Amino acid sequence: MRSSPLLYAYALAIVAGCGGELPRPADPLTPLEPVAVAPQPTPQPPPVPPKPEFDPNDRERTYKWIREEMVPLQAKYRPAKEAIDENPLNDDAMKEFLAELPAFKSKVAGIAGREVAWRVKVHSINQNGVVIDGEGNEYTEPFNGKELGHFYVNLFIENGKVDREQFTEQRTLRLNRQITREFAKTLKAGDQIVVHGKIKSFVFLYGDDKPPPFIEITLDEVQADSTVEPIRAEERR
User: Fold this and answer.
1) SS3 149
2) What is the pTM of this model?
3) Mean pLDDT of the chain
4) How far apart are CA 114 and CA 136, in angstroms?
5) Nearest CA to 55 among 109, 118, 105?
6) In angstroms, what CA-CA distances link 88 with 85, 92, 93, 101, 180?
7) Which residues, including other chains, have CB under 8 Å from residue 221's CB and lie 6 or more apart?
8) Whole-number Å distance between alpha carbons of 149 and 146
9) Integer Cα distance of 205 and 96 in angstroms
10) C-alpha pair distances (Å), 205 with each of 15, 56, 58, 213
11) Listing from the earlier edge strand, what are the strands of the sheet with 129-133?
């Protein structure tokens, strides 16, 4: 509590008469200057994932690019088909869809001839070579209670076999031709390896009047890359 000036003068007189000296009262406290607080950095938004597009070094990104191109096509097809199912004369929307279908096919199939280095998963290994898991399933719209918008991508390897029903043969990296025995001996089912090749063909199945439910991509001049460390199955668990 701060001393009164009158009381201080009275006390000073008493002390002076006794030959002493009264200490002066402390100066009133000086208010502290406010401490400047450094502005907090604005939180940075999470990085934007790369836009899906054809990627010669990323098969999954390429498949997602195909899906992104397919989504608006699927969105137009569904109501157009429902309109015709209700009344075949209501075909305006279907005509519009069919007019846009060739442009989609031309754009997506335009990747034929491009060279790629794609990771593929090992399905199994036999005496003929290494069989890759060449199936992909991309969803284009959520389940609506009756149908699920999706399409399949089948990846094949050009190895002299032509029977598309024999998927195992069409997906086999031939031993000592497309993959070395030494490298094949280090692999097991579930591992992911890199294969180099050229997209020989890009085929749409059953898609003359609707979004194609099946797409076949065939790679030619294929070689497994033993210099790239495989992603082991146990590492992805």
Assistant:
1) strand
2) 0.74
3) 84
4) 20
5) 118
6) 6, 10, 11, 20, 58
7) 158, 196, 197, 198
8) 10
9) 21
10) 113, 23, 23, 7
11) 135-141, 149-157, 214-224, 192-205, 115-126, 129-133, 172-174
Q: What does the pLDDT read at residue 46?
A: 84
Distance CA 202, CA 232 (A): 29
* Structure-derived torsion over alpha carbons of residues 109, 169, 60, 63, reported in degrees to the nearest 10: 30
Look up residue 157 and give its two tokens: 């390897």
State the residue for tokens 């003929």. Answer: 128
Structure token pair of residue 19: 């030959």
Q: Where are the domains of the chain?
A: 59-236
State percent of the chain over pLDDT 90.
Answer: 54
The encoded tokens of residue 33 equal 């200057």
Please tell me which of 22-31, 65-74, 103-112, 153-162 the model is most confident about, judged by mean pLDDT: 103-112
Confidence of residue 62 (pLDDT cuts 50, 70, 90): very high
> Smallest Cα–Cα separation from 127: which of 192, 205, 44, 185?
185
Angle at 62 between CA 57 and CA 63, to 5 degrees: 135
H or E, element range at 140: strand 135-141
Radius of gyration of the chain, Cα coordinates, nearest whole angstrom: 37
